[in-house]
Write a structure and sequence with these properties.
3 helices, single chain, 0% strand
C-alpha cells in the first residue's frame, strides 16, 4: 500500500508529535507567538510554489498554484488560517 502524498502521511506524525508535546512536556503556548506560525506557513507555501514552478510537479494535488483554479486561493488562504486557528486553540487550552 503506497501512502506517499496522502493525508495520513502527514497527519499521523502531526498527531503523535502533538500528543508528545502536550503529554511529555510542560511547555506553554502563547497566543503572542502566532507570528511564528504565520511566518512558517507562508515560508512553506513559498517553498512549495518554487518547487512546483521549478520542477513542474505538484507536491499536493490541491496545491498546484494554478491561479485559474477555484481551489487556488482557497488553499493559499486556508493553510495559514488553519495553522493560526490550531495555534490559538492550543494556546487557550494550555
Amino acid at each position: 500500500m503506497n501512502l506517499g502524498g496522502t493525508m495520513i502521511e502527514h497527519s499521523v506524525p502531526l498527531l503523535i508529535s502533538t500528543l508528545n508535546f502536550y503529554l511529555l512536556t510542560d511547555s506553554i503556548i502563547y497566543i503572542s507567538d502566532l507570528w511564528v506560525v504565520l511566518i512558517f506557513s507562508v515560508f512553506y507555501l513559498l517553498v512549495a510554489y518554487i518547487w512546483t514552478i521549478q520542477t513542474g510537479k505538484v507536491i499536493y494535488s490541491f496545491l498546484d498554484f494554478d491561479v485559474k483554479s477555484p481551489d487556488f486561493w482557497q488553499s493559499v488562504i486556508l493553510f495559514p488560517a488553519m495553522a493560526s486557528i490550531i495555534h490559538i486553540g492550543n494556546a487557550l487550552v494550555s
